[in-house]
Automatic annotation (TrEMBL):
GO terms for cellular component: cytosol. Signal peptide: none annotated. The active site is at residue 82. Its EC number is 4.3.2.8. Belongs to the gamma-glutamylcyclotransferase family. GO terms for biological process: modified amino acid catabolic process. This is Gamma-glutamylaminecyclotransferase. InterPro entries: AIG2-like_dom, GGACT, GGCT-like, GGCT-like_sf.
């Protein structure tokens, strides 16, 4: 099992959360809530209003999201879903645990005890330079006050 941190449309209550609960795509078990240890810019960009974490450490905000434990099948699905490695790149990032629901081995308990876990995160280093000038968010909600409605893939 691998740990994945999601900050956008794959979170609970968001438009693509259904993929995280679809066992035909693999297993994803909610473990808790967290935020990035380092600051990153989280922008909503493109004609479909997609949330992107720009891989520019030290700029922006600590990004809030959810931590999942996923099997290899789900990880492969997420790579495909996220357009990895072209649109997003899957990299390990340090995530501060804010709320932990996960039950696991001693390794997980120890990692959570110091408050920081390493998780895979889909961020992007392949973005148009003008995205750096967009407003930065510290969390994402598709119906947030930003007014930028996410366009589902099936509607594009």
């Amino acid at each position: 099992m691998a740990r994945v941190f999601v900050y956008g449309t794959l979170k609970k209550g968001q438009p693509n959360y259904k993929h995280m609960t679809n066992t035909a795509k693999g297993l994803a078990k909610f473990q808790g809530r967290g935020r990035t240890v380092e600051k990153y810019p989280l922008v909503i960009a493109g004609k479909y209003n997609i949330p992107y974490m720009l891989n520019i450490p030290g700029t922006g905000h600590h990004i809030a999201g959810e931590i999942y434990s996923v099997d290899e099948q789900m990880l492969q699905f997420l790579d495909e879903f996220e357009g990895c490695p072209d649109m997003y790149q899957r990299t390990l990032m340090r995530i501060q645990v804010l709320e932990w629901e996960g039950k696991g081995g001693a390794g997980e308990a120890r990692a959570a005890a110091d408050g920081v876990l390493e998780c895979f995160v889909y961020s992007t280093a392949t973005f148009p330079p003008e995205w750096v000038g967009l407003p930065y968010h510290d969390s994402y909600d598709s119906s947030g006050k930003h007014g930028l409605s996410y366009v589902l893939r099936e509607s594009r």
